[in-house]
Request: fold
Amino acid sequence: MTVRADPAAFIRTHARLQPVGHAPELRLHLADDTSPLWRLGESELAALGVVDPYWAFAWAGGQALARHILDHPALVAGRRVLDFATGSGIAAIAAARAGAAEVAAVDIDPLAITALGLNAAANAVAVEGICADVIGRDAGWDVILAGDVCYERSLAERVIAWLDRLGRRGARVLIGDPGRAWLPRDRLEKLAEYQVPVARELEDMEVRRTAVWQLRPGPTAG
Ligand SMILES: C[S@@+](CC[C@H](N)C(=O)[O-])C[C@H]1O[C@@H](n2cnc3c(N)ncnc32)[C@H](O)[C@@H]1O
Reply:
């Protein structure tokens, strides 16, 4: 079955609803070793209509953010929250569970938005899914969550510059990251550190030390 025929059925077929390693109170449709998504190469995925199925994995940064939010619900309770680059929806779903007033979750991959919808329903929470590149926009969010977004230079630079602007006008910016190449450590305050179970096939290890960081707004330009 291709994605185009029925995106939700594709996700249910290729990913199994299961508890998240570091936040087992949440259940997500994730690929595991019973799913061929693990082993398919780029051309095989393309034949199915899939590009980079990030949504099929709970990335280390998203897992750490979810754990931190579930353990510290006051960070989001009653707030308007944006989960940027939501993937499976893990951080958005944790924020909704923790009592956020409204949660929006964005991703540029339409399949991620379908996965988010399935996963939010599986966890009985409401999250608004938006398929768009919102970098540069400001809808007045109180809290912005960003799990594992510093894996690529151009993305990380655009995202951090934008998040910095949101931070300077008073938004709380929380980043979950295991120390990817383009993480701007000098701009971040570490709030917590976790040992997060990850997929060996993705990370070449079974547990990754992963932190939740708060962005410290830089000095105003000019
Ligand atoms: C490594 S995954 C992280 C997913 C999730 N936050 C987590 O921690 O499990 C990165 C995600 O960023 C999304 N992404 C990349 N560029 C984006 C952009 N400009 N706007 C929104 N999402 C983007 C990808 O589609 C992918 O779902």
Remarks:
- The chain has one domain: 59-215.
- The beta strands are 16-20, 23-30, 80-84, 102-107, 128-131, 143-147, 172-177, 188-197, 207-215.
- The mean pLDDT is 94.
